[in-house]
Amino acid sequence: EQHPLSPIVVMMPSPGMGHLIPLTEFAKRLILHHNLSVTIIIPTNSPPSMAQTTVLRSLPSAISYIFLPPVTLSDLPPHTKAEPLISLTVLRSLPSLRHSLLSLNATVTALVVDLFGTDAFDVANDLNIPSYLYFTCNAMVLSFCIFLPRLDQSVQCEFVDLPEPVRILGCIPVEGKDLLDPVQDKSDDAYKWFVHHSGRFKLAHGIILNSFHALEPAAIKELQKQEPGKPPVYPVGPLVNMDRAQTGSHECLSWLDGKPRGSVVFVCFGSGGTLSSVQMDELAIGLEMSEQNFLWVVKSPNDKVANGSYFSAESLANPFDFLPKGFVERTKGRGFMVSSWAPQAQVLSHGSIGGFLTHCGWNSILESVVNGVPLVAWPLYAEQKMNAVLVSEDVKVALRPKVGENGLVGREEIASVVKRLMEGEEGKKLCHQMKELKDVAVKILSENGSSTKYISDLALKWQDKTTTLTN
Ligand code: UDP
Question: Is 342's C-beta closer than 6 angstroms to any atom of ligand 1?
Answer without folding.
Answer: yes
